[in-house]
């Protein structure tokens, strides 16, 4: 396929989050936006105007046209979750690389169909869990992977909540059973589940047990829930996600020799600079009136926001395929599948009166 030096993106769907990714594509050094589509040409024109996109960006009033555009190398898909299977498979069959919003599917069975289509057509897949691409995440992984500094990870807890209004609860896509039936679990619980798996280096959990008394709307969409993920060795990860509580985005990782805390794990307080606290070998003095040592603050700077770094990483993988004859990288799709597998188990536990669900099929790919 004849291509410019930058990976050329098309956007399928003018969702609010797409505005952020338009900016990210322009900030990334190896990507450019060439096309976007909506269900109506008028909405596509409005999106282009509001976001001050250049005249060179083609606009379409249907999704198929982006897939048929020979100038498009890769597509970003921010559609409702119920549409991910159809349009991800359609994109892969048109040889377009797939950058897909989370949650990636309504079930791991659906996602496996997407993966099979991407594999059959030699295209790269990646989900849009942006915080994974921040250099702070890399720095924290370096610390928790060092036994001499952090010991062994024993417990992880994550909370991601935000308080919505009555309009959201009535009209937002994320509470519509026919569009995004996973509700808060898919929207913000996805981040917490990923953070737990990330901290444990994606080792296979043994069981998932949902917390009792989850809250649903009248359509059966979860508005508030949580779970405990357990490993064979007794290690645990717990999380809570909700549309009904104050904006909170915490992550705590506890090892045998250290603890990491941060209050903005999915979206840093500031784009250019972020931080986390690290406590190592802490304890009480002989007279327990204070801490013997205090946590330290670790600042991590970045030249690009995390969403632009995601675009840059994805574009690098696409370029390796298109220009160098490389094969799609499998690590990112595998991480996505494992996240979806745990999400499915949480939902299964909720539907079965919060009984333990055993994890199977962990290393399918």
UniProtKB/TrEMBL annotation:
Molecular-function GO term, any one: nucleotide binding
Domain GFO/IDH/MocA-like oxidoreductase: start-end pairs: 139-260
Gfo/Idh/MocA-like oxidoreductase N-terminal domain: residues covered: 7-126
Tree of life domain: Eukaryota
InterPro entries given in the database record: Gfo/Idh/MocA-like_OxRdtase_N, GFO_IDH_MocA-like_dom, NAD(P)-bd_dom_sf
Entries under PANTHER family matching the protein: OS10G0403700 PROTEIN (PTHR46368:SF4), PTHR46368
Family classification: Belongs to the Gfo/Idh/MocA family.
Name the UniProt record assigns to this protein: Oxidoreductase
């Amino acid at each position: 396929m004849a291509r410019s030096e930058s990976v050329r993106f098309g956007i399928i769907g003018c969702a609010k989050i797409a505005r952020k990714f338009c900016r990210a594509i322009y900030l990334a050094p190896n990507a450019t936006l060439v096309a976007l589509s909506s269900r109506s040409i008028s909405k596509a024109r409005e999106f282009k105007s509001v976001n001050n996109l250049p005249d060179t960006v083609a606009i379409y009033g249907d999704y198929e046209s982006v897939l048929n555009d020979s100038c498009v190398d890769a597509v970003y898909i921010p559609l409702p979750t119920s549409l991910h299977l159809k349009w991800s498979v359609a994109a892969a069959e048109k040889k377009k690389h797939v950058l897909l919003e989370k949650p990636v599917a309504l079930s791991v069975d659906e996602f496996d169909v997407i993966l099979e289509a991407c594999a059959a057509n030699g295209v790269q897949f990646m989900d849009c869990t942006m915080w994974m691409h921040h250099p702070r995440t890399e720095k924290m992984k370096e610390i928790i992977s060092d036994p001499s500094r952090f010991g062994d990870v024993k417990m992880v807890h994550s909370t991601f909540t935000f308080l919505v209004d009555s309009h959201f609860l009535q009209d937002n896509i994320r509470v519509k059973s026919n569009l995004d039936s996973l509700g808060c679990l898919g929207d913000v619980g996805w981040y917490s589940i990923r953070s737990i798996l990330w901290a444990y280096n994606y080792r296979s959990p043994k069981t998932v047990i949902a917390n009792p008394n989850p809250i649903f709307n009248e359509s059966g969409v979860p508005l508030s829930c949580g779970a405990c993920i357990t490993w064979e060795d007794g290690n645990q990860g717990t999380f809570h996600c909700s549309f009904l509580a104050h904006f909170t985005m915490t992550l705590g990782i506890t090892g045998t020799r250290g603890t990491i805390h941060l209050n903005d794990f999915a979206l840093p307080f500031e784009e250019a600079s972020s931080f986390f606290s690290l406590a190592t070998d802490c304890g009480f003095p002989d007279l327990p009136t204070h801490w013997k040592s205090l946590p330290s603050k670790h600042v991590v700077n970045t030249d690009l926001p995390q969403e632009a770094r995601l675009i840059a990483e994805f574009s690098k993988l696409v370029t390796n395929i298109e220009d160098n004859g490389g094969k799609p990288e499998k690590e990112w799709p595998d991480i996505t599948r494992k996240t979806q597998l745990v999400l499915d188990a949480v939902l299964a536990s909720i539907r079965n009166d919060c009984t333990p669900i055993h994890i199977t099929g962990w290393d399918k790919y």
